[in-house]
Amino acid sequence: MSTESSSTYDFLFKVVLLGDSGVGKSNLLSRYTRKEFNLDSKSTIGVEFATRTINVDGRIVKAQIWDTAGQERYRAITSAYYRGAVGALLVYDITKQGSYRNVQRWLKELRDHVDSNIVISLIGNKSDLKHLRAVSTDEAQWFSTENGLSFVETSALDASNVENAFQNILTDIHHIVFRSTEPISDTINPGRGETIQVSQSQEPTKTGGCC
Amino acid sequence: MSDDSGRPSTHLDVRPDSPAASSFVSHATSRANSQFASADPANPNTKGNGRTSLEAHRARELRWISAMSSTPEAQARKSKKIRKLVIEGVPASVRYLVWAHLADAKGRRIPGVYTQLGKRARIAIAEEIERDARDCFPDHPHLREEKGALVTMLQAYMTMVPDVEYQTSLVIIAGHLLLQSPEEDAFWTFLAIMDTHLRSYFSPRTVQMEVDASIFSKAVEAVDASLAKRLFVDLDLSAVKICRPWFSSLFSNILPSDFVNRIWDVFLYDGPPFLFRVGLAILSCCRTRLLDASSNPALIYALLAFPPTSLLPEDPEALITLALSMKFKDDDVRRQRVKLEAQLKRQTQQTNPRSAFSAISLPRS
């Protein structure tokens, strides 16, 4: 359990990481929150959390990220974790067809347990293993568009797109919250909450401005 | 350091329940149709529907996560802040962590030991454990498996603590833990709960259940004299026979599981006196039935071993509130337990001076 110290924040978002065992959820989280990667990390048992505070459109957002166990035998326990999540990163391994096929199942599992407004992002992890690729980018992109998910390929190992993946989903969530709170708030500039991008794919950019 | 309620958390500088902490909550308050709407923070137990309760759920999760990181396990049961959180409620998503925290399971955990214990030879009682696992959890196939987590966990425990006498309620408690918790975590929490609270119920050397039953019958008399007279004088019921199924299983398989979870939440903080309180609350719920002239001892034992849900409050919180409102001094139980135990110990030692309380084989780090 790791908790990052932060003095204050405007929004707190609960985001869950899910997907098959071994696709790299815990490494995505440690790369994002601690800039660490561990090649022989053990499988997650139950649940672990980490937080990171970032700036989204001038507001301080604290992301509370729940890393869940991908193993089947923990399924009964892990379903409790989805409740109240406003975002989900559904992760598969681009070198494992099986983990991509199971995305359907995870999606169903998620939708059975959460509010329909949840922002879901599909993450194809291990993009550094190009020579072993078993799932094409186009196919996953198409699937994401069909299902109203945003999509990005990442590598927790070489850190590519990890920042973007989290930044994008937090921005998307922020836009929704912003829209729902904007009319009653006099402290927020109302002009900035117009764009809502939930289901559109996010092309990875190299900006990644956070903290 | 016994009360950290006044100290600001070192890990989370803003109190999650502070209005300043989250405009996320405050901005959304009046938007009841939004997923992000807020709950009434003054009323954490309100079972609001839909979005309101979601926000309360998230806020509660956050409070627990920050409380667990700021209060060490060994201090948890001394912290008034934690007690307050326990009473407010424990989200299912963090429940096994909260239980492990309150039981101080981490303090007992030794890496690798659980795996090693699993490799030990099958014990004589294993067959009985397997049979009980099949009988007690008909709705949970994964708990009934012959080489499944429940059987493995109890076999491991029984090889480790030879002074514990096997009873079916051990399977019931272990199974209930496994419904919430990954296997190895469940094992250490089980061990911690046994060590801290329950082991004396299962030791052939102690008479803890007799002691507690005697304290319980006195408590019934103090709370409801006419009911006590009816149960323990007119019908001459045995308090041990009433208390044993309740206390030794922590009410698992006796009450519906949402009640059991809440009882465990509070029990793991308050300790055994809370079991007495729940017992008193159950008697109070069943009072009319118990006083009914047509009831006989067999019927009453059966009724109390499985109190019908129609007699219980609909909401588990109502039972918790009732239990906590019972006129009953927790410290008296603690004192009486010590006194009665010492008395009984003297008696046993006089009759059999060699029955010393031998050392216990727990590998402590």
TrEMBL record, chain A:
Main subcellular localisation: Golgi
Keyword Oxidoreductase attributed: no
Membrane topology: Lipid-anchor
Database matches in PROSITE patterns: RAB, RAS
Subcellular localization: Golgi apparatus membrane
Entries under CDD domains matching the protein: Rab11_like (cd01868)
Pfam (any one): Ras
Claim: Nucleotide-binding is one of the keywords in the record: yes
Keyword set, alphabetical order: GTP-binding, Lipoprotein, Membrane, Nucleotide-binding, Prenylation
GO biological process, one term: exocytosis
Gene Ontology MF terms in the entry: GTP binding; GTPase activity
Record field: transmembrane: none
InterPro entries documented for this protein: P-loop_NTPase, Rab_GTPases_membrane_traffic, Small_GTP-bd, Small_GTPase
Listed GO CC annotations: Golgi membrane
Family statement: Belongs to the small GTPase superfamily. Rab family.
Stored NCBIfam families: small_GTP (TIGR00231)
PANTHER family: DRAB11-RELATED (PTHR47979)
Name listed for the protein in its UniProt record: Ras-related protein Rab2BV
Species this protein is from: Rickenella mellea
UniProtKB/TrEMBL annotation, chain B:
Amino acid composition bias (Basic and acidic residues), ranges on this chain: 1-16
Domain Rab-GAP TBC: start-end pairs: 89-271
InterPro entries given in the database record: Rab-GAP-TBC_dom, Rab-GAP_TBC_sf, Rab_GAP_TBC_domain
Location of region: Disordered: 1-54, 344-365
A GO molecular-function annotation: GTPase activator activity
Record's protein name: RabGAP/TBC
Signal peptide: none
Amino acid composition bias (Polar residues), ranges on this chain: 20-52, 345-355
SMART domains in the record: TBC (SM00164)
Pfam families associated with the record: RabGAP-TBC (PF00566)
